[in-house]
Write a structure and sequence with these properties.
Structural class: mainly alpha
Helix content: 55-70%
Distance between the termini: 17 Å
Shape: globular
Largest sheet: none
Radius of gyration: 18 Å
Number of helices: 7
Number of domains: 1
């Protein structure tokens, strides 16, 4: 195992940790809120898909069993990714999976000219929205990891140096 020498200033570490915790909390809470709402389903969101993933989305909602599986995987992926980001556990795979999940949401319903959705969106967006921003932030956090400084991964992957 190659030992990484990670060195951040206190302010860099604080901002990176805040970013990690904030995005982690947002993703975790999105999953928890879906578990707490027995009526929740991704059907409405997938039915609104109008861009490059619309064919896959229509196929998913055409089969109730596949839709139930996608809903369960979506919920538990959100919960696990969010919790793991906050805890700094299996950080890189969690951040990459989270980024890809968010990118999938974005590609289903991007805020592009000519696309209109009946489901309310957050604010007025053109090309860039919070989903795309959070996806890119997760990539940034992979490039500037804090888990080996502050997180469970620190204890799992630290290398003891013998003199």
């Amino acid at each position: 195992m190659i030992k990484q020498n990670i060195s951040y200033t206190k302010s860099q570490l604080c901002v990176l940790l805040a970013l990690r915790f904030l995005v982690g909390w947002h993703i975790l809470y999105e999953g928890i809120s879906k578990v707490l709402n027995p009526q929740w389903s991704s059907y409405s969101f997938l039915n609104e898909s109008q861009w490059i993933l619309s064919g896959i989305s229509k196929w998913i909602i055409s089969n109730p069993n596949i839709l139930m599986l996608v809903d369960a995987v979506n919920i538990w992926t959100l919960i696990l990714v969010g919790a793991f980001l906050i805890l700094g556990f299996l950080f890189k795979p969690s951040a990459i999976i989270g980024s890809l999940l968010l990118l999938t949401y974005y590609l289903n319903a991007p805020p592009l000219l000519g696309l209109e959705y009946s489901i309310p969106m957050d604010g007025s967006n053109l090309i860039v929205n919070k989903t795309l921003i959070e996806s890119v932030v997760l990539v940034l956090l992979v490039l500037f990891p804090t888990n080996k400084v502050f997180g469970i991964d620190y204890f799992i992957f630290r290398k003891t140096v013998k003199d």
